[in-house]
Amino acid sequence: MRYYYLLSFLLFTALIQGQEAVHNFGSIQIHGDTNVGFHMDLVNDGTFDQNTGLVGFYSDQDALTISGAYMPNLFDTEVDVGGGLVLETTVNVLNNVNLITGDIKTSKSGTAIYSNFLDDAFYIGESSVSKIDGYGAMTNKASFVFPVGNEDRLRPLMIESVAINAMAKCAYFFEDPNNSKTLNADFNTTNKATEFISISDTEFWRLESDVPSKVTLTWDMYSDVRSLGEYLSDLKVVGWSKTENQWVNLGNSEVEGGMAYGSVTSEVFVPSDYEILTIGGNDDRLETYATIDLDNYFMTPNGDGANDILILDGIENSPNNVLEIFNRYGVLVYSQANYQNDFDGQSNRESVVKRGTGLASGIYFYIITMHDLRQKHQGYLYISN
To answer: What is the three-state SS of 87-101?
Structure first.
């Protein structure tokens, strides 16, 4: 009862002063199963924490704003705001966010303000009409899917870290990295660590995390990944290195989906070492390489010293190479840059079998791209365990 009296007083004060906002100068706490709905802006210049109930933000058409000198710490919250919920101060959530309608919006020009999911906090209902259009953050988590996007597109990014992150932040940008007006920066897609990769000029993400992690980027039909590679296996995560000031290949440990919708997962790297991340592929010049059929190979990786290793003829003539091995369903089961005749039948992918597990007996298809010779060699590989 004390809470309801306090909120009514605050609301009354705001209205008689001609303000369209609830202005908290004191202390608000929501206990038990109490549900409180805000239908106007919230200015939090007092404490708003130690909550266990639900706080909802509701508006059919207009945007609502949360501002003030102090961060609200909410337990459960609900967003059903047609014009979006604009954050001018960080909001922390301890338990659940129910995304119904309208984006949670923050400035993308800097990372100072964000929607923060603390500890075990989670969300439900993310969609093209309700997500984070700006910076989302997680605190004290090793893995998280950021429900970020832009306008009417949900463009999530997943992080899987090797340890707990004290904090990680992420935002999505539907901009050409060559000319980002939001960040007032240019990330030249022709400035690359290797000439054999291409860089998306359609979109990018910013991700802050100091913990080594794998990152999964997603694409949709507007991402135009067909321009980046002929096959799904050509796609990879790339990042703009802060120290090298160029695009670097961050790998492809797994790829799922099709050319219209899908996702690609990097190898392990430190996200904060890179200004932005996006999807990369193979340079167009790879399509002009001569394709040469090699002999078929037979492997019996049983450790007896005979046919245990895949030895490709002539590989020493092109140290700058990439080997890819596919199963009979066309799924990539092994990929290695600068291959040195050391494949022993173990997969280094997660898509079909556990990484480090021996491949099943059967027929496989391989492609070895030899950049130094401008050639692609292909053939079949028979594995018998």
So the answer is: ECCCEEEEEEEEEEE
